[in-house]
Amino acid sequence: MIGTLLGNRYEVVQPLDEGPIFTAFLARDRHTESDVAVYMVRAPFSGEVSFLEALQKVAEKVAGLESPALECPQRLDGIADRHPYLIARYERGAQLPERIRRLAPFSVAVAVSTARSIAEGLRPLHAHGVAHGDLSAQNIQVLPDGQTRLRLPCVWEAYSHSETAGLVVLPGMAPYLSPEVSRGEMPSPKSDIYALGVVLHELLTGRLPFNADTATGMGVKHATEPVPSLRAYNPSVPVVLDEIVRKCLAKEPSQRYANADDVLRDLTLLQEALRFGRSLSWPIQGRKATEVGAVAPKMSALREQEDEPAPRSREGGDVPGWMLGVFLALVLALTGVVGTWVVFNLNRPKLVSVPNIKGTTLNEARSTLRNLGLDVRVSGRVFNDQYPTDTILETNPAAGDKVRERAYVSVRISAGTRLVQVPDVTGLTVDGARAALNKLNLELGDSIEEVRSREFEAGQIVSQSPPPKVRVERYSVVRVRMSSGAPPENVEELGSRRLYTLRLKLDGLRESVNVRITMTDAMETKTLLEELKQPGEDVVVESEGVGKQAVFKIYYNDELVRQITKSADGGTPVEDGGQAEP
Predict the structure, then answer these.
(1) Which residues, other chains included, contact 247 with Cβ-Cβ below 8 Å and sequence gap of 6+?
(2) Quick check: 235 and 105 in contact, CB under 8 A?
(3) Cβ neighbours of residue 128 under 8 Å, at least 6 residues apart?
């Protein structure tokens, strides 16, 4: 894929990461000389028309939401070439899961600043009454200045237009799904707030608030288990911040912040209080941080005065009362610190060494890491002539590095050689040919011509292009012709040969397309035309055919757009979709 020119415009430079629906690449836009992010739609979703149409609508919906905190797809291209991809503005940065794995728990100041940046990214979405819908650490990019960008907003709306997309994304979404979404409700701004609460919990503790082996188990825990206290894992978290996260993670949507503006207000007040060393009390109730900071010390002093006991005369003893009080306070403080340290460290995931998994297969690596309490995440695929497909080429962190349990190990894996040898699929069924080609990352052409054959039974592949043993690039298309059965022994029974003429006007096109026209008569299917044509151009094809009728199929860039059945007597054609002149 590296070096491929998409749409005669975008040159693929390097892989970025890989998910269940998309494989992301960095590409260079030759028209604007700028970098863009290309999200290639993976198979089988790349061939699901309804899913792609929904994805196109999502791109049109969010294209106008210009915000430096959002990475909105601008459009969906490549459909005609059967390699659809989303184009988005690219910014250099790191994925949040990688930072959490390496640096969590973050300081309170950094966690609050990051959460504010995420909320800023949600604001334009919530202002338009729409939800990001798939907010998770994996979809958050951290820029060099510490600000964040939210990736692929609203793409969740396309998942319901595919039979399997929802199933493959669910494991990654489950740790961030609010209880109502797990029950089947649609994502909303309030479910985004819930996901933000999960991310904040990760930033401050290095772990998810709930864990389970399956997506279903995760949903049950989100719906039933109480929200864990941040301060149990990280005593440095202020009470106010603990309460903010609790409000984000409320089981009932009505008890959460309404939208990004609401949570952003409290996070901003907290950030100001932290910056100026002032205290806040909960609930914040919309007061300015400076006012809260000024009132809090006064109230604290008043409470101390009210609670102070009347002085009593000291009777006997050699140790002054004030010294006993100081000593007791020190003992209690030390006990509290030690107890807190013990609780925090006992609940912290233990450190484990990353094993050497280079050269192993992806499945072997998953098994090895799972035994150590770790998980694997594919960050990219690279063509490699030395190692077979799905072999681990490099890891981050490297072998021997220490990480905590439940952390991810990012891996780059081999995509196999760039060139592969086309297998011989003649004699196979269409399904068998597709399976043989898919093993080598080759694709079976959508349009399959039929031809009469005495050598091959009906349904078997008669011929192919490119032929067997030719070396081609992976993801190339192989066209085949399929047997429709043996021709009759007496050809004259089919009727005399007739001259068929088909006239077309290429209306409704915006750009030039590769036009292919095939004709199927009683004997065979044959290609009559395959040329690059311009919009509005007139096309005329003639051919002799055997039988009482012939079926013409018209393809634009290998996509069937029209089918016409013409009678042998040369009368008015019978059409199956589209129009043509007799």
Answers:
(1) 197, 255, 256, 257
(2) no
(3) 65
Q: Is the dihedral of CA 60, 66, 70, 73 positive or negative?
A: positive
> What CA–CA distances, in Å, run from 499 to 162, 347, 543, 550, 569?
44, 83, 6, 10, 10
Q: What is the pLDDT of residue 454?
A: 82
Owner of token pair 């206290």: 229
Write out the E strands in 509-548.
513-520, 525-533, 538-546
Q: How far apart are CA 406 and CA 208, in angstroms?
A: 9
Return d(Cα 155, Cα 22) in angstroms, integer.
Answer: 11
Q: Which DSSP letter does residue 204 get?
A: H
C-alpha of 11 from chain center? 21
Closest CA to 536 of 493, 505, 490: 505
**At residue 62, what is the residue type?**
V
| Low-confidence residues of the chain: pLDDT under 70 | 285-349, 488-496, 568-582
**Cα angle 216, 217, 218; round to 5:** 90
Threshold 0.70, pTM exceeds: no
Q: Are strands 140-142 and 148-151 parallel, antiparallel or unpaired?
A: antiparallel
And the tokens for 460?
Answer: 């078997």
**Residue 87: its pLDDT value, please?**
93
Task: Assign 3-state DSSP to the chain and report helix, strand, coil percentages, each to 5.
Answer: 35, 25, 40
pLDDT at 287: 46
Q: Is 149 in contact with 65 (CB distance < 8 Å)?
A: no
Which pLDDT score is estimated for 492? 54
Question: Which pLDDT value is given to residue 142?
Answer: 94
